[in-house]
Amino acid sequence: MHATMWGLYTDVLIVQIGDLEPMRIPITARVTGNPLFFQMMGPTFNKNLTFNRTPTLHFGSHCCGRPAVHRSVRVTNPSPVDIRLDWQTFKVIKDDPQLIDLIVVVGEAFPLLDGSSVVSQEAQDARADLIQVHMRQHEGFASGSLFSVGSQQTMVPALSKANVTFQFVPPLTCDTDGDTFNGYALGYMSLAPQVKNVVGVVTRDDGYQVSALRMDLSAAVKPALLQLETADEEGMLYQLTAGSLLQHDGTILNSVEATSSFLLKNNGQMSLKFGMLIDGPFVLSNVLPSVGCREEGTYCLKPHCAAQVKIGFSLTAETLKGNTGDLQVTLFENQLHYHGQVKIKHDNETQQVLPLQAIVSLPTLRVSHEVLDFGTVVVGHTRELQVNVSTQGVSAVYWSVTHSEKREVLRAVFLSTSFSEKRSSCLRSQVRGHLIKPLRQFQTTNLKWNECNLMF
Q1: Among 173, 6, 174, 172, residue whose Cα is nearest residue 77
Q2: What residues are paired with 3 via a beta bridge?
Q3: Element (H, E) at 268
Q4: Which one, of 337, 336, 354, lies nearest residue 345 by Cα?
Q5: Which residues contact 318 (CB under 8 A, 6 or more apart)?
Q6: What is the C-alpha to C-alpha distance for residues 455 and 386, in angstroms, rounded to an integer?
Q7: Using CA atoms, how far apart are residues 47 and 70, in angstroms rounded to an integer?
Q8: What is the C-alpha separation between 413 and 257, in angstroms, rounded?
Q9: What's the rounded Cα separation, in Å, for the pair 307 and 301?
C-alpha cells in the first residue's frame, strides 16, 4: 500500500473463484504521519517511515532592542489535498517542571480566518463536539511577541508549495553576557470537510488529533556594546596653557587645538551601527579607517573590527571666558577644568559614554610690592627701589608697566606662549615725578624671581 495522506482507509476485496459465491474481505488501513515537510531539509524518514529529525531555524545573534528579524522558509505538500496550517509559537524555559498541557476547546479548534472575521462552514454544519479537551506533552509556553509567524494561517495547496515567514523580536534588555532563546513553532493541520470524510473510502482527523508540523527556533541576543580603549592611561585628558593662544610677536591666534584618540572595537558577532555626540568645545577630528554609513553622522563597525577615533579640544578666547554652553567648567588652583562627554548612541537607543577632560593653565604673575615709597629724595639725586616679578604657573605671561592716575602699578596685560619656552627679563624704567614710562614689554615664563629696578 502506498499513501501520501494520513487517514483511516477502508475497502472491500472481492474474491471470485469460478461459479462460487464471491468472498468479500474487508480491508482497513490506518496511515499516520505528516505529509508536509520544509524544503530546507527535505523529507527525511527513519526505518519506520516516520520523520526522525526536526529542522531548526537559526535567527543568529542580534542586539537587544533592534527591529524584528524575519526568516522565510518553504513548505512542500506532496499530498493530493489542500492542507491549512494554523501556527502556534512557544518558547522553551530551562528547568521547567511542567509535564503536560491540558487544552480545552469550545467550538471549532481552528476556524478558518478571513481577515478580522471568522468563517467556518464546518462549525455551522456540525455542533456535536461543542467542548473538546486535549492533552499534549508540555515543552514550552506561548512565546508572545518573542517568536511569531507572519500569517497565523497558511494554506498549502495540493502538490504545491507555500512560503512561511517566521519572526524574532529581540527584547529591549538583556544580560551583559547576552541571552540565548530557544523555541518552536507548531503548524496544526486542518482539512476541508469534503476531504475529511469520504463515505466508504477514508476518514481523517485534523487539528489537535493529528501530529503537527514542527520547526525549532533559536536566537541569541547580546547588548550593543563597543570596547573603548584610550591611548593614554589617564583617559581622554587634554592639557594646554592659556598662553598658547599668543604667538612670539604678540598676535593672538583664533584657536589652538589639542587632540587625543581612543580605539573602538567590535568584539561581537554582529555589525553595530552608532552615532557620536560630542560636547563642545570638544570636536571630532577624524575616524580611521572610515566606517561611515550612507546616513550622515552614522557609523557601522563590522564584527571583529576596530576604528581609531580622534577627538580634539579647541581653545579660543571665548572658551577662556567660559562661553561653552552647557559644558561644565570649574576653576581649581588657577586652572580651568572643562568636563565633557562622547556619547556613542547605538541604533537600538542604548548609549555608551566616554568622559572628556581638558585642563587649561592660566597665567600667574606676582609682584613683590604693592606700593613703592621712595621717601624724601634730594633734588638732583636718584634713588632706586627693587621690585621682584615672578611667574608661578606653567603658562607664559606678557607684562608691562602702565600708569594709573593715583599710583604706579605693575600688571599683566596678557598671557603668552607654551610650556617649553624658558626666558626671563628684567624691567628697568626711569621715573620722573609720578610718571613711569616702560621702555618695552617683556616676557617671562620661568618660576624664578625677576629683578626690576625703578629709579626716582
Answers
A1: 6
A2: none
A3: none
A4: 354
A5: none
A6: 9
A7: 35
A8: 23
A9: 8
> To 5 degrees, how large is the angle CA 130–CA 135–CA 137?
155
Residue with cell 587645538: 257
CB 123 within 8 A of CB 107: yes
Long-range Cβ contacts of 372-380 (<8 Å, 24+ apart): 372/408, 372/454, 374/456, 377/456
CA nearest neighbour of 112 among 45, 191, 51, 170: 191
Q: In sequence order, what are the beta bridge partners of 198?
A: 202
Range 106-113 average pLDDT: 86
pLDDT in tens, 249-294: 667 788 888 889 999 998 888 888 888 999 878 888 888 887 767 6
Q: How far is CA 332 from the centre of its chain?
A: 37
The residue count for the chain: 456
Chain centroid, CA 223 distance in Å: 7
List all residues 6 or more positions away from 159 whose beta carbon is below 8 Å from its beta carbon.
77, 78, 79, 80
Which H/E stretch holds residue 38? strand 37-38
Give backbone dihedrals phi and psi of 268, rounded to 5 degrees, phi first.
Answer: -90, -170
Confidence of residue 439 (pLDDT cuts 50, 70, 90): very low
User: DSSP state, 125?
Assistant: H
Place of cell 480566518: 113
CA distance 135 to 209: 10
Q: Read out DSSP for 297-342?
A: TEEEE-TTEEEEEEEEEEE-HHHHTT--TT-EEEEETTEEEEEEEE
DSSP per-residue letters across 149-180: ESSSEEEE-TTEEEEEEEEE---S---TT-EE
Do 389 and 366 contact (CB within 8 A), yes or no? yes
Confirm if 141 and 90 have CB atoms less than 8 A apart: yes
97 vs 109: CA distance, rounded Å = 27
The bridge status of strand 351-361 relative to strand 236-241 is parallel
Pick the more confident residue, 316 or 246: 316
Closest CA relative to residue 424, chosen from 390, 400, 453: 390
Q: Using an 8 Å Cβ cutoff, are 258 and 312 in contact? A: yes
Residue 76: per-residue pLDDT: 94
- Average pLDDT on 125-144 reads 80
